[in-house]
Specification:
The chain is α+β, with helices and mostly antiparallel strands. The chain has a domain at about 35-95 and about 210-400: Transferase(Phosphotransferase), domain 1, CATH 1.10.510. Helix content is about 25%, strand content about 15%. The chain is built from 10 helices and 15 strands. It has helices spanning about 55-60, 70-85, 165-180, 210-220, 225-245, 290-295, 300-315, 325-335, 350-360, 375-380, and strands at about 25, 30, 50, 90-95, 100, 130-135, 140-145, 155-160, 190-195, 200-205, 245, 255-260, 265, 275, 400. Strands 6-7-8-10-9 form a 5-stranded antiparallel β-sheet, with helices on one face. Strand 9 (about 190-195) and strand 10 form a beta hairpin.
Length: about 425
């Protein structure tokens, strides 16, 4: 289900999903969709307002980045952005020839409960639909509102005939249960879920500042102060999730939304999973996936710290440390212990040390490893200027604020078509409580 990100316009083929922590497939041939990471670069549109520009050491010939684009140029850049999205396919597939292995999972998961009472007989017709803000393989995301909710909503629509596979159905239900459990200021707020004969619906609070990926695309790279700000809020999310034994497993700029006040909202929990020991599911996004996932040696929450290292590197350098036009070469670089990541001079000493400690192929040596876990991450010199008590209060100085007019503003998301594809009716006992 990760191929339809919340308010995300990137499309990708459905991935292989495990059965809600029951039997996990091992040793299968891996087929990777074409996942090409292209370095970002384009003048910043008018709607991107920078409060703090990168310093001279981190800018390097980007004096033209603040030029204002006219309408036709903006549309051209939107198309370029969408083309790059299509090249960042996230799902990994395995063959049908597999061995299976049981996995130990948490038996003390909090009971999933919606945070707001669901209106009686909730259905699609009760919503005022405004426009589509994202399209994915399984459906689309629409900006909407409801008489019993104060504010804009985002309706994530999943076509049932696209998720008939029992494993995908388990994952759909698992995504719902995890989102109902989590309660964090930097994670999207699931308001309601419901279904009809043809579709399942996730209703979220609408986040109108766009994706971090879009912002990075226009800026190419950002200052260390700005990267530290985003990384700190991501760390707060991961420490919280790992405390619930939840491995997020798909950390990347596309899955980080920005609020109108400039803070983050982590979204798309399609690959998230409760893991107390190890799991062997092959999933994630090629540029961000940890080596233990590729090698099927078993993994847990530590894969998220690896992905954070990639994210920080990409924010500061504008490209992935394992970038390659050939997706199989990306995996070769990630798993090859002799491959050395290049650290450009624009990376500061603390940033370089943090990334290097995150990108340890030996999990026991990776920063964030038990027993201290996230506490060691928070104590790293890279975060010396962060007041961790102020983070959950949103009290850290924001470096960039999306220029939006109101709560219903959709300018930070590209224009997409409004046609709804037909789909077949489908039902399954797994979805009875949806």
């Amino acid at each position: 289900m990760a191929s339809l990100g919340f308010i995300c316009c990137r499309g990708s083929a459905p991935g292989t999903i495990d059965q809600n922590d029951i039997d996990i497939d091992l040793n299968g041939d891996v087929q990777i969709l074409d996942a090409k990471l292209t370095p970002r670069g384009a003048p910043a549109p008018k709607s991107y307002k920078n409060i703090e520009e990168p310093n001279a050491n981190n800018q390097n010939d980007q004096n033209d980045q603040n030029e204002i684009l006219d309408q036709s140029s903006r549309k051209k850049k939107d198309k370029e952005l969408e083309k790059k999205r299509e090249n960042r396919k996230s799902d990994m597939h395995r063959s049908n020839s597999r061995k299976k292995r049981s996995v130990s999972v948490s038996l003390e998961t909090p009971v999933p409960v919606l945070k707001q009472d669901k209106p009686e007989n909730l259905c699609h017709d009760q919503f005022q639909i405004y426009r589509t803000v994202g399209i994915g393989t399984f459906g689309r995301v629409k900006l909407c509102s409801h008489p019993e909710y104060d504010g804009p909503l985002a309706m994530k629509i999943i076509k049932k005939d696209m998720v008939k596979n029992e494993e995908q159905l388990y994952q759909l239900q698992n995504e719902r249960n995890i989102l109902m459990v989590v309660d964090n200021p930097f994670i999207v707020n699931l308001v309601w879920t419901f279904q009809d004969k043809k579709r399942c619906y996730f209703i979220f609070g609408y986040v109108n500042g766009g994706e971090l990926y879009t912002y990075l695309f226009h800026r190419v790279r950002i200052s260390q102060a700005e990267a530290t700000f985003y990384a700190a809020e991501v760390v707060w999310c991961l420490v919280y999730l790992h405390g619930l034994d939840i491995a997020y497993r798909d950390l990347k700029p596309e899955n980080i939304l920005l609020t109108s006040s400039g803070h983050i909202k982590l979204t798309d929990f399609g690959f998230a999973k409760i893991v107390t020991k190890r799991t062997w599911t092959l999933c994630g996004t090629p540029q961000y996936v940890a080596p233990e996932i590729i090698l099927s040696t078993g993994h847990g929450t530590l894969v998220d710290w690896w992905s954070l290292g990639i994210l920080i590197y990409e924010m500061l350098c504008g490209v992935s440390p394992f970038d390659d036009p050939n997706p199989m070469q990306i995996y070769q670089k990630i798993t090859d212990k002799d491959y050395k990541v290049e650290y450009p001079r624009l990376l500061g000493k603390d940033a370089k040390d943090l990334v290097k400690r995150f990108l340890q192929r030996t999990t026991a040596k990776r920063l964030g490893a038990p027993k201290k876990g996230g506490n060691d991450v928070m104590k790293h010199e890279f975060f010396n200027q962060i007041d961790w008590e102020a983070v959950p209060e949103g009290a850290i100085a924001v470096k960039y604020i999306p220029e939006v007019e109101d709560q219903f503003d959709t300018r930070m998301f590209p224009q997409v078509g409004e046609s709804d594809e037909e789909c077949e009716e489908f039902n399954h006992p797994i979805l009875d409580e949806f």
